[in-house]
Amino acid sequence: MPEGDTIHRAAVRLGQAMAGRTLVRSDFRVPRLATADLAGERIDEVVSVGKHLLMRGEHWTIHSHAGMDGLWHVLAPGQRAPVAAHTIRAVLATDAHEIVGSSLPVLELLPRERDGEAVAHLGPDLLSPEWSEADAAEAVRRLRATGVPVGVALLDQTAVAGLGNVYRGELCFLRGLHPVTPVEQVELEPLVALARRLMVANRDRVERTFTGDARRGRRTWVYGRGGQPCLRCGTRIRDAQLGMEDGMLRQVQWCPRCQPEPQRAEPLPA
């Protein structure tokens, strides 16, 4: 699933193509929007909030969430989108570009004055340009209130917005935290500060890195490296599944030496 930095880059790219331009055609291919027509709507800005994207017009906002596979494509007029036609959910045309959204599990139109409702449930956005000490404190408060293992809490978008599997694994490694460590045992202030620094550092990179090394296979400490030697100590990286609040199991990786398992923690299923 795209994480906050990826959605931020998408917002920048879409904003460059759309902001200040008027839609000459819209084609929504989801039942609830089948009759919607935004021709004549000027797009003022495109912004990201956590993993959500908001295309804000004069009167309407197009809200989307990419889920696991969603993408927005910026094309020249008449250019074919590099996706199967049946996955296309929206086509938005200006005089200069066609913007095609594919495989979007969330796509809705909201009155511009009410578009904040779409993201009101989210915790502080790590890439907010207005990020402040108050936001950091609120993220810490919300994370602590989850009462779940840190590896689950970091993916709770209502606690802090923008983090996904990659950041969760890398943050736990860099802070020496086993993913099943109870959140109440974690120093959350430096964890949130590190999450913000990493997200900002990676937001303008095509290939994010957590190690400072941009070479393939060297960009992450543990994510995607199950069974491989730890880049720090050489111990074999473990790979298991961690239960989430939504009942789903998601893969998580960790180094058993650099991230020792806390006492009385529930073991992870292999």
From TrEMBL:
EC number, UniProt record: 4.2.99.18
Annotated FPG-type domain residues: 221-260
Question: Which UniProt key words apply to this protein?
Answer: DNA damage, DNA repair, DNA-binding, Endonuclease, Glycosidase, Hydrolase, Lyase, Metal-binding, Multifunctional enzyme, Nuclease, Zinc, Zinc-finger
* PROSITE patterns reported for this sequence: FPG_CAT, ZF_FPG_2
The record's annotation in Pfam families points to: Fapy_DNA_glyco, H2TH
- In what residue span(s) does the Formamidopyrimidine-DNA glycosylase catalytic domain sit? 2-92
SUPFAM superfamilies attached to this UniProt entry: Glucocorticoid receptor-like (DNA-binding domain), N-terminal domain of MutM-like DNA repair proteins, S13-like H2TH domain
Query: Enzyme group, top EC level?
Result: lyase
Q: What GO molecular function annotation could you give as one example from this UniProt entry?
A: damaged DNA binding
- SMART domains (UniProt xref): Fapy_DNA_glyco, H2TH
Q: Name one GO biological process term.
A: base-excision repair
Its family remark reads:
Belongs to the FPG family.
Q: What is this protein called?
A: DNA-(apurinic or apyrimidinic site) lyase
**The organism of origin for this protein:** Agrococcus carbonis
